[in-house]
Structures are given as structure tokens and as C-alpha cells.
Amino acid sequence: QVQLVESGGGLVQAGGSLRLSCAASGRAITGNTIWYRQAPGKVRELVATISSGGRTNYAASVEGRFTISRDNLANTLYLQMNNLKSEDTAMYFCAAPGLGAWGQGTQVTVSS
């Protein structure tokens, strides 16, 4: 069984950057891994996906600003977020859906 723990969230000014980490334990991450976010009163949004082969996909709202990556040796997933906007404020979660693993989330707040 895989456990996922996110870190790296915080308060940042608009235009700033944050790097989220998602550390996995229990077993190696395999298959697709994702970052998604949930803001109060808004629909859950899939932010980015990375396959085991390194193929990436992004939501249109973050394309060109966010980068998802994965370090298989460290068993860790990352989300580099640049040029943050107030609308990026949300709780961010990582997941390995194929393994049934979901993190508890880390809060990102962007002040304008």
C-alpha cells in the first residue's frame, strides 16, 4: 500500500513561485500520477498528470506556468508552480489513482 504526503504549500504573492512535493512510501509509485486542486465553492480540477513514461498533460488554466515531474528513485512527485495567480488558491492534492493512493493535501494561497 502506498502512502502519499504533500508538502511545500504556503502563502505567496501573485507572480511568485512554489514547488510542491509529494513523497510516497510503502511501495514504488507506478502508473499515472496526478496533481489536482480543490478551492472552496469550486469544482475539483485536475491540474496535471504524468505517466510512468514521463508523458505530461496540463489543465489549460496552468499550461505554461506549472510543471509536473517525478523522481522515481526518490519516489517523489513534484509540481513547480510559477507566475502564480490568485485563482490558483486552493488545496492541492497528489494521487496515484491506479494504486488507490491519495494524499491529504497542502494549502496554496496566492495574495493579489
What is the compact description of this entry?
The chain is 0% helix and 53% strand. It is mainly beta and 112 residues long.
Summarize the structure in words.
The structure is a single chain. With 112 residues, the protein is mainly β. 0% of the residues lie in helices and 53% in strands. It is built from no helices and eleven strands. The strands form two sheets. Strands 2, 4, 5, 6, 9, 10 and 11 form a seven-stranded mixed beta sheet that branches. A four-stranded antiparallel beta sheet has the order 1-3-8-7, with no helix packed on it.
Topology, pairings included?
Layout: E1 3-7, E2 10-13, E3 18-25, E4 33-38, E5 45-50, E6 56-58, E7 66-71, E8 76-81, E9 90-96, E10 101-102, E11 106-111
Parallel strand pairs: 2-11
Antiparallel strand pairs: 1-3, 3-8, 4-5, 4-9, 5-6, 7-8, 9-10, 9-11
Shape: globular
How many E-type strands?
Answer: 11
* Low-confidence residue ranges: none
Straight-line N-to-C gap: 40 Å
Could you tell me the strand content as a percent range? over 45%
| Element-by-element helix/strand order | EEEEEEEEEEE
Number of separate helices: 0
Helical percent range?
A: under 10%
- Rounded mean pLDDT is 96
Q: In terms of structural class, how would the helical and strand content be classed?
A: mainly beta
Largest sheet: 7 strands, mixed
Rounded to the nearest angstrom, the radius of gyration is: 13 Å
Task: For the structure shown, list the relevant keywords.
112 residues; globular; single chain; 7-stranded mixed β-sheet; mainly beta
